[in-house]
Amino acid sequence: MTATETIKLILPQDKLSSLLAECGISPQFVKSEDNLLDHKLTIIKNGLNEKSLERFLKAASQYSYADGDTPAQAVFNKLREKKVVLGIAESLTGGAVCAEMVKIAGVSECFFKGIVAYDNSVKISALGVKREDLSKYGAVSSVVAEQMAKGLLGDGVTVGISTTGIAGPSGGSTEKPVGTVWFGYADGKNVNSRNMLFYGDRDSIRMQAVQYALFMLYKNLQD
Length: 223
Description:
Structural class: alpha+beta
Radius of gyration: 18 Å
Distance between the termini: 37 Å
Largest sheet: 5 strands, mixed
Strand order of the largest sheet: 6-5-7-8-9
Shape: globular
Order of helices and strands: EHEEHEHEHEHHHEEEH
Helix content: 25-40%
């Protein structure tokens, strides 16, 4: 019987390839089901160096989420476990993160609202983003992403996640090229943000942003 190890990860393909190579795991030991950033890896243990597998599992843990779940299902499980209520603020993803969450049966118990703040005026009026910060830092920034997430809190919402970025094909710059996305997270105690640079066409960039937003939320709920 062939012994295997299954792990689900959210990370870019080039990073995954580098991680496997760094740990000494060649492609012959890996079967992968890939959907943009979302990877389900089945690692064949037979003939594989045990220490290489241990190194990989340790290194990959920062990118992993619950085996057998979709990112949205993994988030839902954590929301129920933590007994928190989610709000989502989206710019470039245009409601797609919300759409992933509402695919889950029973999600109404822990997902209260979503706001598509595509124009800066909506970021200000609906989420409390400061006009002066939009002027100083731009809509695609850590400051604005965090303010968008914080602006969701209240009225029953205890956890917020936000997306703001440049999906293209135009609108990029040297400092902020097409594919630049900032993600914000806020709860009653913590506020943080992360940025990523995604590649591909407009739809691909937006879907990678959806996957990463759910993953960032999952990791914050896991801490």
